Amino acid sequence: MRYLRLRPGDASFAVVDANQNSQDSISVNDGPVESILSDELDPLPPGTRLYGQIWTGGPNVVIRYYEARPPDGDPIPICAVARLGRGQLKKMPGSSPGNAILEFYQTGVYIVDGFR
User: Fold this and answer.
1) C or N: which end of the chain has fewer Cβ atoms within 10 Å?
2) Low-confidence ranges of the chain (pLDDT < 50)
3) Candidates 3.40.50.720, 1.10.10.10, 2.60.40.1840, 2.40.128.260; correct CATH number of 11-111?
C-alpha cells in the first residue's frame, strides 16, 4: 500500500458487480467478485478492476478486495473493503442462503491496513 501511497481511510466508489452496472437492485452470491472503480482512488483511475471475495452470511454483505488491475497496468495487491453506509450493503428481503439482494449497485471502497 505504501508503494501506491494509499493509506487506511482513503476511499472511492465502485460498482459492486461489473456484470450488474446501473441496475436498481442487484443480486450477489458468496464467492469471488469483480468490481469497477467509478471514481479515482489516487493513483488508481476510474475503470480499475477490483478483485475480491463476497460473504453473505449475516444481515450485511461483506466484501474484501485483494487485487486492483488498472486499465493500463499490471495487477497490484491491495487491502480494501466495501463499507456499509446508508444501508447500501444491508441485505434486502428475499435474500436466500448464499445470496443477497442489495438495493444499490454501487458501494464505498475503503483502504484498510488489514482484514478483521
Assistant:
1) C
2) none
3) 2.40.128.260
